[in-house]
């Protein structure tokens, strides 16, 4: 089942080799030649010649670019210094030199500065800049907003500079639009990016503390699971009971009062209006009372199953702490998933760049010198055009067309991406299931192998890759169909919508959404059965499905209680890290203890938007918590299936003893008929 993902992976180097897509360098087109030169290590920064060419609609700057060793720290304009020194409040020391393309020396005697600017060989102006991800952007965008007085003066001077160089009239509104775009973009997104880059160590420390809290939460779950579950049920029952009594009391008070409202009901946004209606409190009393009775009956009827769920969670906590490495295992599939996502994005972007070029040579009436050959590009190989002695200004042009057949590669790419992503998820599930199944089916927990995770990885790679690929293919097909349905819906909205087709699409989308959820549930439990018995995917899925159907109530209780505890853990860990990060950034410089820590150990970074850093830390902690608690959830699911299988195939005799812990045996009323020496 693996040729398709392998073929998808093969497509990347094939595209690179066939269509020369490996170029990530700065492309520069001149009048003489078509050439491409990458920024080297000694010139890592990129300078844009004219920021007024930046387009808010295209989100790009259509202007020549050049690589430099460092970003310019001074200003320069092709007009007399007296015309801009006072306006910009600059000194003579802040005036620099023009920036030109490689091979152009502005200090050379007889250099025609005006002609060089017109030929796009030199920048029409130079601004004090700072580097942002190796791009030189004006320094002022980090400290002023669009419409600032400095910005207005700068726009006027840039306009004068461009008019001086071109000899024509420049539209100041276009300059204003381009500068405002760069300034606005730099004042928000780029500043945020810079804040994140300068605070990366704080972000890692925050996420690291979150990892420690997640580990502690998993470790203490065996001690607090019962308290948290029963405490939550008790508090919820008390709240519903109190809510019922309060609503009924308010209802009786309003009904017996002389000022009760008798006018007809009307819809309004005034909440006090509804609070004055006796029907509001009657409905509230009935709703709270009904929920109170239902929850109370469920608690009484499902009491034993709740105890089983708590015992399984406690046992899962023991199994997780018995194999500490399982908590860090999700990092490996997470890295693989990020690699697959990046590879998919790379192939997608490069496929969109595939074009068929019809190259030609155009001869103009201006002569050129010292040119022997011109490499115009690639179309069925490299075409080299020999320049004759009487040739004039020769340069490359091309007419590009998109081959429609290439769009089918996008579908191939998308399906391969979905398949590989689900394959990695399935592999992670099966490895964890094999590890925790080893824990459960080891009769004497003192003899648990310490390298159970490594053994599970070996078995998964050696015997079960086909089962994983088959299960992943099922999910990928369903997800692919859902994406196609979304695509069809978008295409149909462009024309006149048919109600029948629209209704059919909605039904199909709902159907495949439910089918995907169901198949993910089946896949997860099938992988557990594959890890336990080592049989193929179909037999394991069938066995897991019928085993769960015979214990459907237990399944519901265990899943909901586990989901509740893990949600609570994720919420508490994330909230704790957010509070720590907030006090660190907001008050880190004000308190002695925090200041000592910040100054000597961590250093509170100087950031403009510290709430963005807090948000990044919160998101990172949430992702880490989901990874950690995903392991715990897998432990509960694996132990639960093992527990159900243990109950059905064993009877507690010496030949078929129960493998479950004593707490679980006490809850279900089972006992092993063994001597005291053999008990564990």
UniProtKB/TrEMBL annotation:
Primary localisation category: membrane
Listed GO CC annotations: plasma membrane
Cellular compartments annotated: Cell membrane; Membrane
Annotated keywords: Glycoprotein, Membrane, Transmembrane, Transmembrane helix
Family: Belongs to the CTL (choline transporter-like) family.
UniProt cross-references to Pfam families, sorted A to Z: Choline_transpo (PF04515)
Name this polypeptide is given: Choline transporter-like protein
């Amino acid at each position: 089942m693996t040729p398709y993902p392998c073929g998808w992976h093969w497509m990347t180097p094939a595209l690179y080799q066939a269509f020369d897509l490996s170029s990530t360098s700065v492309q520069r087109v001149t009048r003489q030649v078509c050439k491409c030169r990458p920024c080297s290590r000694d010139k890592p920064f990129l300078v844009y010649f004219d920021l007024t060419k930046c387009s808010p609609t295209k989100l790009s700057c259509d202007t020549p670019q050049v690589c430099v060793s460092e970003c310019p720290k001074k200003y320069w304009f092709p007009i007399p210094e007296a015309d801009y020194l006072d306006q910009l409040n600059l000194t003579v020391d802040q005036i620099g030199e023009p920036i030109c393309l490689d091979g152009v020396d502005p200090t050379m005697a007889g250099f025609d500065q005006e002609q060089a600017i017109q030929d796009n060989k030199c920048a029409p102006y130079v601004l004090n800049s700072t580097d942002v991800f190796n791009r030189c952007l004006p320094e002022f965008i980090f400290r002023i907003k669009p419409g600032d007085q400095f910005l207005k003066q700068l726009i006027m001077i840039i306009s004068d500079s461009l008019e001086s160089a071109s000899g024509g009239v420049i539209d100041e509104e276009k300059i204003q639009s381009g500068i405002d775009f760069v300034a606005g973009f730099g004042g928000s997104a780029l500043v945020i990016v810079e804040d994140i880059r300068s605070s990366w160590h704080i972000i890692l420390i925050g996420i690291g503390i979150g990892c420690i809290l997640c580990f502690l939460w998993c470790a203490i779950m065996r001690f607090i699971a019962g308290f948290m579950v029963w405490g939550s049920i008790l508090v919820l029952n008390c709240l519903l009971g109190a809510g019922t009594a309060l609503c009924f009391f308010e209802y009786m008070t309003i009904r017996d009062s002389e000022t009760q409202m008798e006018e007809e009901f009307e819809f309004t946004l005034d909440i006090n209006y509804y609070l004055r209606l006796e029907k509001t409190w009657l409905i509230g009393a009935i709703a709270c009372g009904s929920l109170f009775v239902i929850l109370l009956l469920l608690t009484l009827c499902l009491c034993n199953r709740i105890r089983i769920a708590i015992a399984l969670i406690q046992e899962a906590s023991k199994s997780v702490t018995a194999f500490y490495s399982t908590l860090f295992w999700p990092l490996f599939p997470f890295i693989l998933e990020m690699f697959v996502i990046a590879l998919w994005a790379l192939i997608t972007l490069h496929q969109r760049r595939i074009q068929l070029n019809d190259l030609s040579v155009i001869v103009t009436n201006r002569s050129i010198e010292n040119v022997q050959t011109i490499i115009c590009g690639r179309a069925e190989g490299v075409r080299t055009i020999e320049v004759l002695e009487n040739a004039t200004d020769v340069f490359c042009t091309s007419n590009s067309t998109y081959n429609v057949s290439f769009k089918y590669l996008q579908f191939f790419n998308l399906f391969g991406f979905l398949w590989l992503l689900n394959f990695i998820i399935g592999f992670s599930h099966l490895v964890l299931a094999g590890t925790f199944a080893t824990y459960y089916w080891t009769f004497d927990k003192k003899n648990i192998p310490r390298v159970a995770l490594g053994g599970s990885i070996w078995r998964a790679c050696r015997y079960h890759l086909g089962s994983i690929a088959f299960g992943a293919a099922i999910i990928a097909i369903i997800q692919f169909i859902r994406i196609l349905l979304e695509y069809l819906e978008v295409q149909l909205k462009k024309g006149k919508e048919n109600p029948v087709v629209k209704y059919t699409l909605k039904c199909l989308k709902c159907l495949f959404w439910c089918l995907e959820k169901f198949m993910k549930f089946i896949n997860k439990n099938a992988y557990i059965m594959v890890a336990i018995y080592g049989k193929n995917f179909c037999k394991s899925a069938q066995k897991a499905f019928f085993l769960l159907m015979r214990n459907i109530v237990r399944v519901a209780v265990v899943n909901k209680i586990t989901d509740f505890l893990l949600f609570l853990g994720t919420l508490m860990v994330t909230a704790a890290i957010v509070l720590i990060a907030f006090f660190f950034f907001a008050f880190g410089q004000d308190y002695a203890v925090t200041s000592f820590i910040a100054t000597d150990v961590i250093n509170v970074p100087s950031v403009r938007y510290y709430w963005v850093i807090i948000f990044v830390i919160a998101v990172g902690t949430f992702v880490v918590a989901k990874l950690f608690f995903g392991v715990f959830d897998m432990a509960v699911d694996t132990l639960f299936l093992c527990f159900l299988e243990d109950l059905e195939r064993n009877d507690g005799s010496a030949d078929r003893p129960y493998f479950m812990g004593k707490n679980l045996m006490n809850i279900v009323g089972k006992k092993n008929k063994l001597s005291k020496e053999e008990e564990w």
